[in-house]
Amino acid sequence: MKNTVYFLLFLIIPGWSLAQTTDVPEGNDAYHIMDRIEIKAGALAPFHTAMKPYDRQDITHYTIRQDTTGDFTSKLDDWDFRYVYRDNNDCLEINSGDISRYRWSMEKNYTDSDSVFYKPELNVAKSTTSKNAYYQLSKKPIFKHFYKTPANLFELDKDNFKLRINPIIHLKFGRESGDSSIIFLNTRGVNVRGNVDNVLWFNTTIYESQARFRQHVTDGIENGTYPAVPGAGFYKDYESSIFNITNGYDYLRGNGYLAARISKHVNIHLGHGRHFIGNGMRSLLLSDYATDYFYLKLNTRVWKIHYQNIFAELAADHLSGGADRTLPKKYMAAHHLSFNNLLPNFSIGFFESVVFDRGNTFELQYLNPIIVYRIVEQAVGSPDNVIAGIHYKYNFLKHFSFYGQLVMDEFVFGEVFGGNGWWANKNGYQLGLKYIDAFGLDHLDLQVEHNTVRPFTYTYQNKTANYTHYNQPLAHPLGANFRETIVKLRYQPIPKLVVSGRVTYATFGTDTDSTNIGQNLFLDYKTRTSPTNTDPDYGHKTGQGVGNQLLIGRATASYQLRHNLYVDLDYEYRSRSSDDLNLEYTRNYIGASIRLNIADRVVDY
C-alpha cells in the first residue's frame, strides 16, 4: 500500500497551494464547546461535526463568528470562547475572504492575572488581514521565550513557518477495593505542530507510559476477548520495586501526519492516527477506541457536502512481551458522505467501509473514491467484509440535539421481519439526546445515549477481515451482542471547574469454551452455535450466551489550574452480575491525577 500512496502523492503535490491546519486532539475541551455553541446558536456549524477529529481552523473561525453575534453573553460562554482562542492561536490569522464577518479593535483588556486578551469591537475592519484579534499573551513569560502565550510552551511565527511545541504529562494514582497495590499511570510525551509556507501542515505526538491498571482492564488484557492495552499497540510487562508492582505494563504510542490542501475544496492527510464518525459518546460505524493506524485521507467539502475517503493499513494481530516479528496486515477502505442543512438544523451521513486481506497487498480496485464498495467486493468474488450505515442529527429549540446511527453488516430483507432470529441479521443502532443549559441552568449539560448491536455483527470468516485493529474493535468496545445505556451529566459552575457524573448500564452475552454466540469478533462466524442447540442459523437474539449485566457509576471533579493543566478527582463504582458466578464482582475506585495537554481516557470495559 505504501508504494501506492507515494505514487498518489507524487501526482498530487504540484497542486498544493492553500493551507490546511492541524487537528484538534481527542478529548480536547473544544469538542464539548463546539456542541454547546452549535446547539445554542440554533444553526448547524459550517463544518460537519460527525467527522472527527475537527480541524483547528474550522472551530476557531466558527467560534469567532458566533462570538460576534451577541447571542453568547454569559461569563461561562466567554470562558469557552477564550479557551478556543488560546488553544488555537496559530489559526487567528483571518484571510480577506473571512474578515468581512469580523471587525476588530485592538484595545488590550486584562482578563486575569495570567494573560492579556485582545477583545474585538463591532466596527469597520481597517485591513484585509488581522493577526492579533482574539490573541492572548502571557503577562509573565518564562525566561522570555517559554509560555509567551498561555497555551504553548514554545511557539514561533514567521512569514513562511509556524511552530508550536508542548509537553504532555499525565500522572494518576488511585486505589481499588480488594486490591492491596496502587493503581497508577505515568505518561510523558511531546506534541509538535506547525506549517511551512502555508502549504504543508504537520503534527506529531509521542507518548511513553507505564501503568498498573484497574482489575477489569488487567483481566481484559490477560484473559479477555480483546487482549490488548486499550487504545495502545505494542506493550511490555512492567515491574517497579518502588511501588511494589509486578503486573504493570509499559507501552509507547505515537501519531503524526502531513496535511495539505489540493484545491479550495479538497485536502489530503497522510499519517498515523485514528478517526471517529458520529455525534455520540460511542460510534457503531468507526470509533477511536482502537490504537492508531497508517492512513491516507481525502476530504472534499463543497456546498452542504463533506465527502471523506480513508484508506488504512491495519494489524490483524498484536504484539506483547517483547516479541520480535512482523505483524500480519489487513486493509480498510472507507468513505463517508455527509449533508448539512438539507432541512434546517438537520444533518445526515452515509458510511461504508470494507476490511480485507490480500497477503500484505492492497486491493487497487478499492482506491476508487466514488464507487460503492459492495459493487467492487462482489466484482472481485465477494471475499471481503463490508460495513454500511447512516448517522443523523437534528438540533432544535436551541437546547436540544437528537442524534443516532444505524449500522448494517449483512441482512436479507425477508429475514429481518421474519422474527426467527436469523444469524446474519447483523446490525445495530444508536439513539441519543443532548440537552444543554438543562432546566435553565447555565452550563448544566445532560446527555442520554442507547446502543444495541446484534450477535455476529462485525465478524467474518477469518481473523484477517473482521472489524478490528491490533486486537481491538474498530467500533464499539463491547464488540457485538450487547445493549448499553449511558446517562451523562456535566456541570461547570465556575469557569475553571467541571463536575460530571456518568452512569452506564450494559447487558451482553459472552461465549463459553465450546460456543460461539456472536460476541467475539475474532471467531469465524461459520463456527456459530445456536442458543437453543438446534439450527445454528436461527434463534439468535441480542444478549444470548452467558448473560452479563454491568452497572458503572462514575463521578469526576476537574479543575483547570492554567490552560490545559488539570487536577482531577475520580470515584467509580462497578458491579457485574453474570450467569457465570466466577465473573461477578463489586468494586470501588478512588483516584487523583494531574495532566497537561492530554485527556483522561475512560475505559469502561
The domain tally reads 1
| Intertermini distance | 33 Å
Radius of gyration: 24 Å
* Count of extended strands: 27
Share of helical residues: 10-25%
CATH architectural designation? Beta Barrel
Instruction: Please describe the biggest sheet, giving its number of strands, its sense, and whether it closes into a barrel.
Output: 18 strands, antiparallel, barrel
- Percent in strands: 35-45%
- CATH class designation: Mainly Beta
CATH superfamily: Porin
The CATH topology comes to Porin
Give short descriptive properties of this protein.
single chain; 605 residues; mainly beta; 18-stranded antiparallel barrel; 8 helices; globular
Word description of this protein:
It is built from eight helices and 27 strands. Residues 4-19 and 94-132 have low confidence and may be disordered. The strands form four sheets. The protein has an 18-stranded antiparallel beta barrel. It has a three-stranded antiparallel sheet with strand order 2-3-4, with no helix packed on it. Strands 1-12 form a two-stranded antiparallel sheet. The protein is globular. It has helices at residues 2-12, 29-41, 56-67, 75-87, 96-99, 215-223, 373-379, 413-416, and strands at residues 51-52, 108-110, 115-118, 136-138, 154-158, 161-176, 183-196, 200-212, 235-240, 245-261, 266-273, 276-277, 293-302, 305-315, 329-343, 346-356, 385-396, 400-410, 426-435, 444-453, 468-469, 472-473, 482-494, 497-510, 546-562, 565-578, 585-596. It is 12% helix and 42% strand. Helix 3 packs antiparallel against helix 4 (75-87). The chain has one domain (2-596): Beta Barrel (Porin). It is mainly beta and 605 residues long.
